[in-house]
């Protein structure tokens, strides 16, 4: 059965200046109704080049407890590498459909790797205005090049170089988050599986939408990951839920946006917050983003770290193997 891609829906919808009903959100989700329109608080920005590490730890901890999201600058990933990553991703999505389909997720696959459209079960059968590409980029033992585009030819080289930088940055951040909990620097890294933890690249492609007031690129969700490191293109769209409001995230060129995901919430026994976020779309421009999800391997059991629980602080979360946690969450099954 041929799957309809949102890129194709966009082309026909722009001509009609309307969108199919399955993309129209309920009023409690529609961005035109639910986006906060007053003065918007800024998502915290952390400068990793600050020589005072205690200061950096304090800033990361405060942002992770209050927001569950922050932006890092002077993070060590070269700006030109981010630009190359974005260029090869954009070129892939601009290829003819038949070429993109060569790396499509197989219909019978239990995994998420590959080019695709629908990711998870949605209430009321609604659809998100996005196509995507998933593939693991680290460790080498879990990389499957079957799902890496052959075109543009430099795609593989750029992603392999980016993987090394994103791994280094994520380990720096996990170290800061661990120390902020009074733990050994490696505690959260080990809690996610140490060197067996997996880095999953996703490219989100949100084509122009004639009714951005009614549709969402991705509905409200928290990430399955431990942490997510994301670079967007210049078209705004990320929104964060805080204090009962949806706020627009500011675009800072070359910054990396860090999301605290479900597994760090669980490992920290709730001390760090997993950020609820969503994506809006644009009427005229294509938004794209490149999140890398740092995840435990499938069999890894994740629950609150013993050092953070005790008689006066019982575990708030039930331990789950990551594969079971993911299955339950994506299929809207109970998690406790």
Automatic annotation (TrEMBL):
SUPFAM superfamilies: Clavaminate synthase-like. This is Fe2OG dioxygenase domain-containing protein. The keyword S-adenosyl-L-methionine does not apply. One of its GO terms (molecular function) is L-ascorbic acid binding. GO terms for biological process: flavonoid biosynthetic process; pigment biosynthetic process. Belongs to the iron/ascorbate-dependent oxidoreductase family. Coiled coil: none annotated. Residues 196-296 form the Fe2OG dioxygenase domain. Its cofactor is Fe(2+); L-ascorbate. InterPro entries: DIOX_N, IPNS-like_FE2OG_OXY, IPNS-like_sf, Iron_ascorbate_oxido_reductase, Oxoglu/Fe-dep_dioxygenase_dom. Keywords: Dioxygenase, Flavonoid biosynthesis, Iron, Metal-binding, Oxidoreductase, Vitamin C.
């Amino acid at each position: 059965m041929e799957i309809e891609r949102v890129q194709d829906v966009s082309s026909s919808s722009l001509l009609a200046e309307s969108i199919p009903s399955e993309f129209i959100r309920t009023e409690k989700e529609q961005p035109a109704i639910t986006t906060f329109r007053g003065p918007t608080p800024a998502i915290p920005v952390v400068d990793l080049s600050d020589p005072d590490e205690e200061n950096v730890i304090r800033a990361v901890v405060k942002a992770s407890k209050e927001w569950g999201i922050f932006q890092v600058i002077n993070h060590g990933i070269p700006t030109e590498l981010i630009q190359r990553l974005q260029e090869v991703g954009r070129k892939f999505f601009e290829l003819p459909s038949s070429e993109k389909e060569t790396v499509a997720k197989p219909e019978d696959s239990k995994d998420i790797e590959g080019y695709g459209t629908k990711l998870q079960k949605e209430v009321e059968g609604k659809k998100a205005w996005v196509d995507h590409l998933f593939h693991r980029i680290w460790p080498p033992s879990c990389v499957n090049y079957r799902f890496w585009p052959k075109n543009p030819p430099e795609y593989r080289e750029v992603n392999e170089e980016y993987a090394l930088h994103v791994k280094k940055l994520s380990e720096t951040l996990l170290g800061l988050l661990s120390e902020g909990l009074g733990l050994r620097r490696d505690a959260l890294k080990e809690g996610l599986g140490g060197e067996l933890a997996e880095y999953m690249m996703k490219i989100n492609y949100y084509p122009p939408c004639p009714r951005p007031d009614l549709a969402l690129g991705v509905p409200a969700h928290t990430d399955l990951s431990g942490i997510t490191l994301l670079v967007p293109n210049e078209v705004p769209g990320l929104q964060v839920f805080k204090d009962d409001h949806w706020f627009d995230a500011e675009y800072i060129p070359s910054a990396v946006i860090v999301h605290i995901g479900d597994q760090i919430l669980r490992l920290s026994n709730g001390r760090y917050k997993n950020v609820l976020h969503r994506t809006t779309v644009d009427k005229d421009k294509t938004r794209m983003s490149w999140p890398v999800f740092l995840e435990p391997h499938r069999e890894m059991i994740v629950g609150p770290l013993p050092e953070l629980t005790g008689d006066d602080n019982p575990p708030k979360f039930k331990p789950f193997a990551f594969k079971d946690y993911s299955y339950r969450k994506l299929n809207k099954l109970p998690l406790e």
